[in-house]
Design a protein that fits this description.
It is a single chain. It contains 10 helices and 7 strands. By secondary structure, it is α/β, with parallel strands linked by helices. It has one domain: Rossmann fold. Helix 3 runs parallel beside helix 4 and helix 3 runs parallel beside helix 9. The two termini are about 15 Å apart.
């Protein structure tokens, strides 16, 4: 597979070095309307910084090939059930021909990156400037740190064939419902959204079914946008079948086709 490295010699991220943030984050400066500013001078110039982040993301990820974005809690402890699940998922996705994209942080994200890299695949981390989290985890092979959430979220969707969502908090739910909204409104080509950890998601799914759908806030077909499983092989099988049903080449075949020719 193009760009494969093993875990002993991988180049850790980030592409753009960062240091711990002091004071307000860039997103906060942009979105906080209460902050004093001369908006006629500052906000228009921010557009150039935003544009540069899009350009860098597109440039770095353009040759990534088939990939799956994996989400889950940064607070999950190493060795926890969800981290073990994420590590197995990272390995299984690589075996199926996919790169693994995460938010680059600790917990579930680190476990998925580790599984991908140890399996010999591409391990991508898309970090974000936050006041309480610094740097990318050591299992990221290709890393980019973003200042703006909306730029980062575009990269998660644009370069993924599917989303795999493990137990997590507000950030995980944000990515989950962003994906579901984009698919529901046909802003993106339909792609699988897989929830792993049925017991964790049971209450949310019951509420979607018994409250939202029952009151007509979403349709019955909208519930079918979510695939729930506890089995990694089942999750990957669902992704591969959906990918191929949409007319794409099998990810493993496409990834093999990107491998450099030895001679």
């Amino acid at each position: 597979m193009k760009g494969m490295t093993d875990s002993t010699n991988h180049r850790p991220g980030p592409v753009r070095p960062t240091s711990p943030r002091r004071g307000p984050t860039t997103d906060q400066q942009l979105l906080d309307s209460r902050r004093p500013r001369d908006w006629t001078r500052t906000d228009p110039w921010r557009v150039l910084r935003i544009t540069s982040e899009f350009v860098e993301g597109f440039d770095e990820l353009a040759d990534l090939g088939p990939a799956v974005s994996v989400f889950g809690s940064a607070r999950s402890k190493p060795g926890s059930d969800e981290c073990q699940l994420a590590e197995r998922l990272g390995r299984a996705l690589v075996r199926a021909g996919y790169a693994v994209i995460t938010g680059g942080g600790p917990g579930v994200m680190e476990a998925a990156n580790r599984g991908a890299l140890e399996a010999g695949g591409r391990s991508v981390g898309l970090g974000i400037e936050l006041p309480f989290e610094q740097g990318l985890n050591p299992w990221v092979e290709l890393g980019i740190n973003f200042r703006y959430f909306f730029v980062r979220k575009t990269m998660f969707v644009k370069y993924a064939r599917a989303f795999c969502v493990l137990p997590g908090g507000y950030g995980t739910l944000d990515e989950l419902f962003e994906a579901l909204t984009l698919v529901q409104t046909q802003k993106v080509t339909r792609f699988p959204v897989v929830l792993l950890g049925s017991e964790y998601w049971r209450g949310l799914l019951d509420w979607l079914r018994n409250t939202m759908a029952a009151e007509g806030k979403i349709g019955a077909a909208d519930l079918d946008l979510i695939y729930v499983t506890d089995d990694v092989d089942d999750a990957v099988r669902h992704i591969v079948e959906a990918d191929e049903a949409l007319g794409g080449r099998p990810a493993a075949e496409q990834a093999a086709g990107q491998a450099p020719v030895e001679g």
